Amino acid sequence: MSNSMDAKRKLSGSPKINKVSLFGRVKASLGQHIHQLSNSFFELWKTPFATLMTIFVLGIALSLPTVFHVVYKNVERVSGQWDSASEISLFLKKDISEERVQVLINKLGLYKDIETVTYISRHQALEEFKEMSGFSKALNYLDENPLPAVLVVIPVKEAMNTAGNKLLVAKLEREQDIDLVRVDIDWIEKLQAIFYLVVDVVIGIATLLLLSVLLIVSNTIRLNILNQRAEIEVLKLVGATNSFIQLPYLYIGAWYGFLGGVIAWLFSFVLVIWLESGVMNLTDLYQANFELISLSFDGTIILLVTSALLGLIASFISVKQYLVTIEPK
């Protein structure tokens, strides 16, 4: 009876022992990684000048895609404001009567995609033209008013875009009393086409710069491995595995990428501050309200994580290519 109870105790206690041992292995592995991570950071600064030069080169390479991203976000905001600034001018036929004008205004008021309709009579249009042109005395000698009456149409918010404007313009052009429909969206479309072309070019340049980051970090890790060849041979002689030896180099590559990302963030932040006053002066001239935005918190995290991953990948490639070839003689 006592033997069976002892056996049960041993069986019931075995999972606990396994759990403790598993937890201990995880804790020891985590402690090893933290130790290697901190040691690899201090290892960088044994040669501070070379490390700073490498980090600044990486920062410059990473700053260009980062700056392009910040510029893209700001230009996208501007183009969004242009796309929403839709105002349609309807030039009416000269022989239209006031009654027909009122009928047309009431009809346009029933359109679901029109918010407001403002009527500018021929007399009002002429007076406004006199004030804006400065030729009021010369215009007084005209036998008749050459300007037509105008209806200024503001679309609803849902139709304040290029596609919505085109649909609305197509419907307005079918109205008999309207002589000409004018909306300034053609230049916006051309500007957006140029903008998208520039974005494609920037993506290509950014890809090349990211590849250059991989090459820089990979070459730096290769030089570190070759400079420490004797130490690696000694470690292999005492039984150290390749995975144990390569771990510090992987962390060094990640540190290079991370610190390069920090430099890139600083460059983009300084650029926004430098351009902010000039942009404010330009927007004041056009009586517009626009404020430059820098890299967001999420964008900063993505930049730092991506740059660290690039450094880690580059060091992994270099380690796999050169570390395995080193064997003790």
Automatic annotation (TrEMBL):
Function, as annotated: Part of the ABC transporter FtsEX involved in cellular division.
Residue ranges that the Swiss-Prot or TrEMBL entry lists as coiled coil: none
This protein's name: Cell division protein FtsX
Domain ABC3 transporter permease C-terminal span(s) in chain numbering: 205-321
UniProt xrefs under InterPro entries: ABC3_permease_C (IPR003838), FtsX (IPR004513), FtsX_ECD (IPR040690), FtsX_proteobact-type (IPR047590)
Segments forming domain FtsX extracellular: 87-158
Name of the gene: ftsX
Family matches, as PANTHER family: CELL DIVISION PROTEIN FTSX
Oligomeric and partner information: Forms a membrane-associated complex with FtsE.
Compartments where found: Cell inner membrane
Topology in the lipid bilayer: Multi-pass membrane protein
Record keywords, A-Z: Cell cycle, Cell division, Cell inner membrane, Cell membrane, Membrane, Transmembrane, Transmembrane helix
Organism annotation: Psychromonas arctica
